[in-house]
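Most newcomers find our protein records easier to grasp once they have seen one. Read left to right, the backbone structure tokens trace the chain's path through space. Nothing more is needed to start thinking about how sequence determines fold. An example says more than a description, so a record of this kind follows:
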Amino acid sequence: MRELKVVGLDIDGKRIICETSDSPDKFVLTPDDRLHAALNGEKISFTPSKIEAEVPTVLRPKDIQARIRAGASVEQVASAAGESLSRIERFAHPVLLERSRAAELATASHPVLADGPTVMTLLETVTTALVSRGLDPEATAWDAWRNEDGRWTVQLTWKAGRSDNAAHFRFTPGAHGGTATAFDDAAAELIDPHFSRPPLRSVAPVPTLDFTEPIPVVAPEPELFTPEPVAPEPAPTPPKPARARKRKPEVPGWEDVLLGVRSGTQP
């Protein structure tokens, strides 16, 4: 519960103005029978009315910062508490800077493998892994939050095609940048080149033609053609010999008959 301190009365003198020691916010208190009884030292039983029970509890700045430090966003805290974004942002801003700084320090840490920390930093290792997959290492986002045990969890997000991907690491600050340990399979695959999980399938390169050398032209082999059997043509029929036209007997003219000679003949 928050402790209020009376600072004065309202203009009409009917309400009490209060404030807290850890916030510049002002509170207005309307006196009622319970307040009068409490001031007189009388014992009363407090049963909140229905309207009072429905009013959400105002989060203290310490509570707001604790939720932001644990990974919640300003929008999530404001929605859960039923408060305005402006009030949550006012107390969340320094914690968001703390989270951003922790994520930046984590990129300079050294990933821990089975044989110990690597020479390359976490940022260098992740960049090499993304470039080998054909992804843009600049299209990434880093974030960090503190867990209940006080250790930092670092999150790396990137986009591959239409899918959103995330990898999480445990960041331990220390000498030479500290160390980062993979917390899930995606993180282990990024920092360990010998990870047992099969790598992501890559697209086979498209073959290109080399136009510097002439392309040999191979003539197609002729198709074997088997002619169909042809029936032998019939021998030509010899022409029939022309028949000798029979000469008709000449009819002797009347002169021949009378004279006993043929016309046109010599005696």
User: Anything to note?
Assistant: Helices lie at 33-39, 50-54, 61-69, 74-81, 85-107, 122-132, 185-191, 254-259. Residues 1-55 form one domain. The first helix runs from residue 33 to 39.
